[in-house]
Amino acid sequence: MNWHALATRLFPQGFEIAEHACFLSGTAQVDGRSVAVIGTTEHTPIGVEIALAQAQAVLATVRDHPQRPIIILVDTQGQRLRHRDEMLGINSYMAHLGKCMELARRNGHVIIGLVYDQALSGGFLTSGLMADACYALPDATIRVMGLPAMARITKVPEERLTELAKDNPVFAPGPANYVRMGGLQAIWDGDLAACLVKALSEAGSTDQRSALGQARGGRKWAQRVIDAVISGDHV
């Protein structure tokens, strides 16, 4: 789904969103109030320019529109893998974006992420996964690392990882597996505008992903480790 078709379904009360070099920014009306819209399109990789543009848009919202909800529309193939971006410190730009999102949250901005097409690696980590709650469309492509790349990094044969992925969502791509792990709150289908209204009303600033992953059976140890650290007990 292209971003304009998505926005038409997501914001039936109207929207003013501009696209510039695969970067989306603007405003929309949701349930009678204005929300800020920030995102990417065309599977664009997140380089220093887009990371900085997203950060600037978040900070402008915090400065000019206190507590206005922020909607993050995610479609990215991950961070841009170029020597130039690495030399400029793409990791610092993406960390800056994540910090800006946290600043917005601490200043009362509800942040909702929606993966409407593709979400890979670092581009997803510092956008949708930084939201108070992240959702996805049924046909979205989501993964932090593909199994071939994971096999090269871990030295575990790809065939073994493929077998593990059948039962363990940590190794498997796709929105359903990220729901099981708690990374996604839910998958949206049908009336997207109603889904967004509901998400905004239910959003909270407390990170529930580990608890959701434990309850859904996708991440069995994360919450247990967190509880043990807080209590000082051994796992």
Automatic annotation (TrEMBL):
It comes from the Bacteria. InterPro entries: ClpP/crotonase-like_dom_sf, Malonate_gamma. The keyword Lyase applies. Its EC number is 4.1.1.88. GO terms for molecular function: lyase activity. Keywords: Lyase. NCBIfam families: malonate_gamma. This is Biotin-independent malonate decarboxylase subunit gamma. The gene is mdcE.
